[in-house]
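go over both lines:
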Amino acid sequence: MQLAAAQLPQHLQKGLKSLYTLHGDEALLIQEAADAIRAEARKQGYTERVVHTVAGAHFDWSEVLASGGSMSLFGDKQIVEVRIPSGKPGKEGSPAIQQIAESAKGNDDVLTIFVLPKLDKMTKTGAWFGALDSFGVTLEVQEIDRRALAPWLTQRLALVGLRVKSGEEGERTLKFFADRVEGNLLAAHQEIQKLSLLHPNTAHPEPVEGQGFDPSTSSGQAKLSPNGVGSANGLKELSFEQIEAAVLNVARYDVFKLSEAVLAGNLVRTQRMLDGLQAEGEAEVLVHWALSEDIRNLHRVRSLMDEGKPLPMALQEARVWGIKQRLYERILPRLSPLDSANLLHAAHQVDGIVKGLKSPGWPSNSWVALQQLAGMVCKVAA
């Protein structure tokens, strides 16, 4: 049974199942979902906990099977956690997981929790994952995207009794905070905990284990007041200066998020992400691949449209899906054939630069050339 992350608190109130599968790349939210399940399990008498981490192709699955198939020495209920960091259980793991999933049905003495990273479509259609979904509850934790990050921070600040000022200063404060922690929710959580220590709200109760995971937290939609910055009732107000002085720059970026920023025409965010990728030591070739892949796809779809194909059909033929599809739909109606050809030529020039060649009219520094190329796409998309 598939469960949306926002439904977990209500689900746990109705009763605990014997098998849960958590998957996604947001480590903080995965951890909090697991905490919420474990907290409810302890209320119901699950006092022992065994953790298995599947590492390597030669992992001994017999230990996991034995954990779930035997009672505790003292007859206590137990929690068995199976963590698969790679998301690949291996040849022996697949039948073992199917056996574990089948045996979990109706077993009220053992609670089994599988923790997995973000899974691709092919993995989700595999027999072992299908067994987990059929005999238990699967919960996919979605990432908090940039647009939802400010409300998410508002919600998290409220959990520790804090809020930002209302109005324009509050919006500026949340934007600054989001820029500092983008792509790193675990560090964002730590920065909020630090703020609660530096500026404690003595009248606000400490959050209990599992409290951080609720519908508004997991979906990125905070419970907002009409002014958009949360209820002031009982919350201590922080100024921009207080947050600026305390919050470190712990943002992390990847080339896929860079692609979204470029296609959205957000030049400031694009420049910041390129600076971050350079500081993190990302390979220029990979950054160029992300930019040029979008440029090639835009050119391909533009060419199909010029041949008379409608935009939806052209996007489908070019295999453009999801958020990229929405961004392409916004850009393509105003992307001229000349713009498309110029971007394609520029991508070719920068390809040589990142490989050590020189190109007339272009900077010799790879990162400067990448910023110029990204700026060209931003200008077309803005």
Remarks:
- The beta strands are 2-4, 19-23, 46-53, 77-83, 110-116, 137-140, 162-164, 236-238.
- The chain is about 55% helix and 10% strand.
- The domain at 2-140 is CATH 3.40.50.300 (Rossmann fold).
- Confidence is low (pLDDT under 50) at residues 214-231.
